[in-house]
Design goal:
Layout: H1 3-13, E1 27-29, E2 32-34, E3 40-43, H2 46-49, H3 58-68, H4 81-94, E4 98-102, H5 105-124, E5 130-134, H6 143-148, H7 152-155, E6 165-168, H8 173-179, E7 184-189, E8 192-193, E9 199-200, H9 203-216, E10 219-223, H10 238-241, E11 247-250, E12 261-265, H11 267-270, H12 286-299, H13 302-320, E13 325-331, E14 334-339, H14 345-354, E15 357-358, E16 360-362, E17 365-368, H15 376-391, H16 395-399
Parallel strand pairs: 3-15, 5-6, 5-7, 7-10, 10-11
Antiparallel strand pairs: 1-2, 2-3, 4-12, 8-9, 11-12, 13-14, 14-17, 16-17
Bound molecules: pyridoxal-5'-phosphate.
Length: 400
């Protein structure tokens, strides 16, 4: 494969809605991605928290291949086993009652918004449809989820926006109460804001929000698209905060690399979403569900999740010791790294790439979302590479 050709062709024909790094990835195995020259990269990005079992995990590949040659797709007019099996497993794991499947995080959040409004309108009549979201949140790129996203940078030039969204600063319970009125049907939030800079919500704020919303019968929509499916060391990040939401959305890591979105609902919410209320052509696709079931096999394995917790602790402790690191944020294997002022996270990311380590950024922070299969040695290697980059960092590199 000719890397230069791949880049040129892409630049000419693919709509450039992304700022891409000039790197072509050709293959991957486990924690390692390879470029066309065979250069190896230790991948601490998982395709933004997606390939939770690393590249081409044999059990995942076998499950997907088996379903692919059995029945790759049918419409939602008919029953297939993988979809129901996956829904049942998700309900057993989370304590929720019903699942709707779509294809992405944004789509899952759209479904969650619809379900919350339907519940509220059925129960209280029209007009009770406002969704409160948090500043610095990220909920997707479709028009409703873009509106829900509490960051002005994403809003420019795409109006007019949907009505019925209201924003409050994350962690400010007084502001949340202030924003609450008889039109509000739900609060939507990420327990750890991912794109907003890998910031975990304050437990006291969450506790107050949960209690207050319960009193008002305002639904709690946990956007677990990035935090869910084991990423933070528990299946849902909500578990760290000790509550079960009314609606939870999953996507990124759930499929292990295949596109999936899921809206998990309690019975009291789901009972309002009857036939005809929502749909998706590809949602619940058997191949995708087979892949997700292979991911759940690992996430339900106690030893596997112990490793996630141990590696997260090892990685966080190691990062805190590195030069120029002022704070390590997030939860579990959702890691944000704040660097001293004057050091650009984007430039450090590029230098790591040069040295064979792939990492991400979020706002001003470096960000790591490694596959959940990582070993002690993988963490040591990543710390060594980032450590070398930071030890040799001259602040002028960034400034000049
Ligand atoms: C990535 C992300 C989304 C959007 O998911 P897509 O699959 O890109 O539509 C929504 N919410 C959160 C918290 C995310 O991290």
């Amino acid at each position: 494969m000719n890397g230069e050709k791949v880049i040129k062709r892409d630049d000419k024909y693919v709509a450039h809605t992304y700022g891409r790094s000039p790197l072509v990835l050709e293959k991957g195995r486990g924690m390692i991605a390879l470029d066309p020259q065979g250069k190896e990269y230790l991948d601490f990005t998982s395709g933004i928290g997606v390939t939770s079992l690393g590249y081409c995990h044999p059990d995942w590949v076998a499950a997907v291949e088996k379903q692919l040659e059995t029945l790759p797709h049918t419409s939602n007019l008919y029953y297939t086993a993988p979809c129901g099996k996956l829904a049942k497993r998700l309900c057993k794991i989370t304590g929720m009652d019903k699942v709707f499947f779509g294809n992405s995080g944004a789509e899952a959040n759209e479904g969650a918004i619809k379900a919350a409004r339907k519940y509220s309108v059925d129960k209280y009549g029209p007009g009770r449809s406002t969704i409160i979201t948090l500043e610095n949140s990220f909920h997707g790129r479709t028009l409703a989820t873009l509106t829900a996203t509490g960051q002005e940078v994403f809003h420019q030039d795409f109006g007019p926006f949907n009505q019925g969204f209201r924003y409050v600063p994350a962690g400010n319970f007084a502001a949340l109460k202030e924003a609450m009125d008889e039109t509000v049907c739900a609060v939507m939030f990420e327990c750890v804001q991912g794109e907003g800079g890998v910031m975990a919500l304050d437990p006291a704020f969450v506790h107050n929000m949960v209690n207050y919303c319960r009193q008002q019968d305002v639904l709690l929509i946990a956007d677990e698209v990035q935090t869910g499916a084991g990423r933070t060391g528990t299946f849902l990040a909500c578990e760290h905060y000790g509550f079960t939401p009314d609606i939870a959305t999953l996507a990124k890591g759930l499929g292990g690399g295949l596109p999936i979105g899921a809206v998990l609902m309690t019975e009291s919410v789901a009972q309002h979403m009857g036939p005809g209320s929502h749909g998706s052509t590809f949602g619940g696709n058997p191949v995708v569900c087979a892949g997700a079931l292979a991911v759940l096999d690992k996430l339900e394995d106690h030893e596997f999740m112990l490793n996630v917790a141990d590696r997260a602790a090892q990685l966080r402790a190691g990062l805190a010791q590195l030069p120029h690191v002022t704070q390590v944020s997030g939860l579990g294997l959702m890691v944000g790294i704040q660097l001293e002022e004057g050091i650009s996270a984007a430039e450090v990311r590029a230098a790591c790439q040069e040295q064979g380590l792939l990492v991400l950024t979020a706002k001003t922070r470096l960000r790591m979302l490694p596959p959940l299969i990582l070993t002690r040695l993988d963490v040591e290697r990543a710390l060594e590479i980032l450590g070398n980059v930071l030890t040799n960092w001259k602040k002028e590199e960034t400034e000049g």
